[in-house]
């Protein structure tokens, strides 16, 4: 009787431990207490569209770096800047322009890192072996588009700033970069719509 009681206690402890593991690791799933925990694939294979987006982002990044250094070498050490009557900047050391490039690099690294940990995000749909590849892939694609838009924004801002410094463009051109909020919103709406479709399928 004591042995039986000890076995039940051990089984109960193991079940609690497994449940804690499941709560802490969304990439793991247990169908029933009698079955072992199965690992959910957290990194679905890349689709062609994802590879294309990453290549486009890389091309924009290379072009932005090239444009930056090509124009940067032409500038004097101190630059006269006119971003309009509301701007407090009139003169600036050209080294401060490097912040643009550093910001672009850091954001690309940050978003790329997030793409590797899509399984760590919280989702409105319960993750299981049937929908995991879709949920994680949708999140990764959303981040890919966000990265592409961000790189496009930095490219436009880089070109705008140098053109304004050279008196070729009006300061208004830089303020037009605010329009980049539109593709961000569109991507967010599309992503939410795709997740909502998964939620509806799970609730049926």
Automatic annotation (TrEMBL):
Transmembrane spans: 51-69, 96-117, 148-166, 172-191
Keyword flag Transmembrane helix: yes
Keywords from the UniProt entry: Membrane, Transmembrane, Transmembrane helix
Domain of life: Eukaryota
Keyword Membrane in record: yes
Name assigned to this protein: Uncharacterized protein
């Amino acid at each position: 009787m004591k042995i039986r009681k000890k076995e039940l206690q051990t089984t109960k402890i193991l079940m609690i431990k497994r449940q804690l593991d499941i709560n802490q690791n969304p990439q793991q799933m247990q169908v029933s207490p009698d079955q072992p925990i199965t690992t959910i694939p957290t990194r679905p294979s890349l689709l062609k569209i994802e590879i294309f987006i990453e290549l486009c982002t890389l091309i924009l990044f290379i072009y932005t770096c090239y444009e930056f250094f090509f124009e940067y070498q032409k500038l004097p050490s101190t630059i006269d800047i006119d971003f309009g009557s509301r701007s407090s900047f009139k003169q600036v050391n050209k080294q401060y322009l490097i912040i643009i490039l550093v910001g672009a690099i850091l954001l690309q690294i940050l978003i790329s890192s997030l793409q590797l940990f899509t399984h760590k995000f919280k989702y409105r749909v319960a993750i299981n072996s049937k929908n995991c590849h879709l949920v994680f892939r949708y999140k990764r694609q959303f981040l890919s588009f966000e990265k592409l838009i961000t790189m496009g924004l930095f490219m436009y801002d880089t070109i705008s700033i140098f053109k304004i410094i050279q008196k070729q463009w009006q300061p208004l051109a830089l303020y037009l970069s605010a329009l980049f909020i539109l593709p961000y919103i569109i991507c967010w709406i599309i992503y939410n719509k795709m997740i909502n479709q998964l939620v509806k399928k799970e609730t049926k």
